[in-house]
Give the backbone structure.
Amino acid sequence: MLNLFLTSAEQGLVFGIMALGVYITFKVLDFPDLTVDGSFPLGAAVASIIIFNGGNPFLALVLSLMAGMIAGFITGFLNTRAKISGLLAGILTMTALYSINLRVMGQANVTLLNAKTMFTYLEEVLGIPRRWGFISAFVVAVVVVKILLDSFLKTQLGFALRATGNNPDMARSLGINTDAMKTLGLSMSNGLVALSGGLVAQYQGFADIGMGIGTVVAGLASVIIGEMIIGERSVGLATFAALLGSFIYRLSIGIALRLGFAATDLKLLTTILVIIALSTPRIKNLLRIASS
Amino acid sequence: MLKLKNVSKIFNKGTVNENVALSNINLEIYDGDFVSIIGSNGAGKSTLLNVIAGVFPLDEGSIELDDQDITRLPEYERASFIGRVFQDPLMGTAPSMTIEENLSLALCRNKKRGLKWGLNDKLRKEFRVKLAELGLGLENRMNTKVKLLSGGQRQAITLLIATMVKPKLLLLDEHTAALDPSTVRLINDLTEEIVLQKGITTLMITHNMEYAIKMGNRLIMMDGGKVVLDIRGADKALLTVDELVDMFECAARKKFDDDRIMLGLTS
Ligand SMILES: Nc1ncnc2c1ncn2[C@@H]1O[C@H](COP(=O)(O)OP(=O)(O)OP(=O)(O)O)[C@@H](O)[C@H]1O
Ligand SMILES: [Mg+2]
């Protein structure tokens, strides 16, 4: 039981960074970005290939982040400059990334069993045992990301980003370059998603070409679960909600696995969960109409 | 300060739906003018404001502001010196952001937005004063999301947003049309106060003849994409609602007759 909890906490945190990325596009920018399914494995691919070849695992994370930002920038470019719809722009980048990820890894998967990941360092240099190494590293990473993101969203530029998602006409009327803001948000979002991918690769000890499938839906599930529980009264609460949602989501999956569901069925379960969650307001409304 | 020369705007040019929304308009607006614009539905009033704001390109003619040709300047660049308020109270504010955040957005207009805090105590104090001037008690709700406010409250905030940094030109498109009569009076009073106090050159579309006469120093009536009446100063002050309605109907009747002639109904 404690084990289930700890594992869910680890996963909730490490995938929580991805959920924060999804929060930026879906909630702040109101942009349904599917790049995520490609930028998550991109981050994993970049980090794992560097670490596999003996590179510094922390530097590897920085490069994951940057690779993800470039991916997001491309989706932004396709949408704002080439005037391709947001949904399609994301799908195009995601599809292209499949080939790129294979190129980066050189094969369909990279194993880090014998390589020095960040957790090897934490263990050898700081003397933190594996199990606690995971959770403490993820807590630090999540806290840093959350503080930076919350702070950014309270700056003038952050306000401009939020206004762009909230009311683009108004934003433009106040001289905000909404195209630039969209591209910025997409870059930030996919940077975080790829960073999460780089951390996950080190956490599970491998990167796999198929590991990105369903990332968007999982991120969305986290954001929605959090929103249902906490709401979005302020920026700080909204990002906290995404993280809490991520934890609850991973916990549910852990429980589902214990209940005997096959790991391969989880994407179906997640999708059903998201569908139910997305339609709840409607269900609530229906109930209200029925009872009045 | 604002000069429209031979401005024409034709929608769906060359199709069966061709529609001349503005036809050869020549208009000069002077510094500090407060112009009320009236005219029947489809007269081209909104289109006039839209071409001034650069929402869509002209088919003919040119627009000059302060002796600078802005005919080809894109909308978002003109936005830095043109403030707008629309009929729909949802349009002028960011609903999921708080009142103070909305005002902060307005303050940064014309400025490069960077990584400075969007809000601080000094700004909050400044906003509190500005909101108190509206007399709606909003200064005590600065942390409220705008989507929780009424249409009138939002429109008041939109007005503040549009004029926070003094624009060269303020364009109001039936900005009180969605409000109840007492709120209409309130927003119109606010409009007058802000416009006169700051000396903002303003174009205001309205369907309310009384306010059209009462407010501003100049009145323009549009019909069929043309300016059919342009009264200023003392003449405008002497105008009565009845006279205006007469002229309005005359213009409408003429249009009706024209349509009949065009359709071959008069013989
Ligand atoms: N984007 C557009 N595309 C096509 N036709 C348009 C467009 N905008 C306006 N029109 C047409 O141009 C004409 C003038 O419209 P406009 O909106 O300027 O009228 P208005 O004077 O503002 O009327 P109202 O009092 O109803 O707001 C109308 O015939 C309208 O159908
Ligand atoms: Mg109109």
In short: Chain A is about 80% helix and 0% strand.
